[in-house]
């Protein structure tokens, strides 16, 4: 893996966020060349297309055909994008409970009734 | 070393009573530290003994890379049932090492991926993500990333003002007390010796209780904390229960809420030996000590025997 490629891989999250931010500032649907220019023109055209396609798969952007090329527009903001990625982490890892301490764990059916009773007690005014 | 080499493999059983009683009878912080230390000691000793058995077993196999003298009768006699025990120890030790490395790898990967998922959000200590699924997680710092609390909008929406503060205080307590280290330690231990699994479950519960207690102190009301836990659990209840362990026993969430509705637990140093909890604590401590002594004894004996058997 070349140094540049490695930097690209590491920065994927940041790049996606940057592309999304650029699309958010666009006056309307824009093409990939506009996004590339907006980001300073340092990225390769294919890189921009790759990122846009990845965002499309995450439903963070939409695209439509305009002439021979696609024009892109943003469908989610940065927090929305982070939520999509976070959900993928949570869905993809069967052992996530083992790593991330969740605020609450799932409730077996019997616990639900018990918990409602306890909640009633907790809602009584404090003495 | 005789039968002592097998003892550390079963001595984790001495920690079962304390894993059962600690969560009700000890302060959550004391219980977490005690159970983690006991689990760590027992797991290391059990793995050391497995490794010793494996050395003796490997030396019997034809074509092994160990010195020829290690398969002498004197070495074999150091281990009872050396034929069976040695052969069985090889796959078991490999399985243990694979399971432990996998656990560490999963832990590292989830933290890395979660950190990447939030990379675009800058460095704020709280990330509220628009998601209709309710969740709240504490992401520990690492590799240039600060501690962060991740909460979904659905989770925030189901709580009222003071309860939200309780939720964030709870997650911050996880981060401030570095609970992920205790959890990782007991998870690796439980993979080193399956008899340590009850300790893993117990520590998962006591760290939550510890964070509940700290957060209740911070928001100044145990009831608010209890309501936050109960409401959040009722909203998140869609997920199917993954374990069959809850048989007629209340699960961890109702027990947490019930504990918060009771007065705060006392921070005592050690329970008296003459109480049930005290007896359980001392049984576990004795088991861990026994385990350490047995494995040290076995390691030393094998070292001496192998040294004598190695031609110089």
Automatic annotation (TrEMBL), chain A:
UniProtKB keywords: DNA-binding, Transcription, Transcription regulation
InterPro entries: BlaI_family, WH-like_DNA-bd_sf, WH_DNA-bd_sf
Signal peptide: none
Organism: Streptomyces inusitatus
Name of the featured protein: CopY family transcriptional regulator
Family: Belongs to the BlaI transcriptional regulatory family.
UniProt keyword annotation of DNA-binding present: yes
One GO-annotated biological process of the protein: negative regulation of DNA-templated transcription
Gene Ontology MF terms: DNA binding
TrEMBL record, chain B:
Cofactor note text: Binds 1 zinc ion per subunit.
InterPro entries given in the database record: Beta-lactam_resp_regulator, Peptidase_M48
CDD domains xref list: M56_BlaR1_MecR1_like
Alphabetical GO biological process terms: proteolysis
PANTHER family (alphabetical): POSSIBLE SENSOR-TRANSDUCER PROTEIN BLAR (PTHR34978), SLR0241 PROTEIN (PTHR34978:SF3)
Protein name in UniProt: Membrane protein
UniProt cofactor(s): Zn(2+)
Family affiliation: Belongs to the peptidase M48 family.
GO terms assigned for molecular function: metal ion binding; metalloendopeptidase activity
Membrane-spanning parts: 31-56, 88-108
Domain (Peptidase M48): residue spans on this chain: 104-186
Superkingdom of the organism of origin: Bacteria
Matches recorded under Pfam families: Peptidase_M48
Keywords carried by this UniProt record: Hydrolase, Membrane, Metal-binding, Metalloprotease, Protease, Transmembrane, Transmembrane helix, Zinc
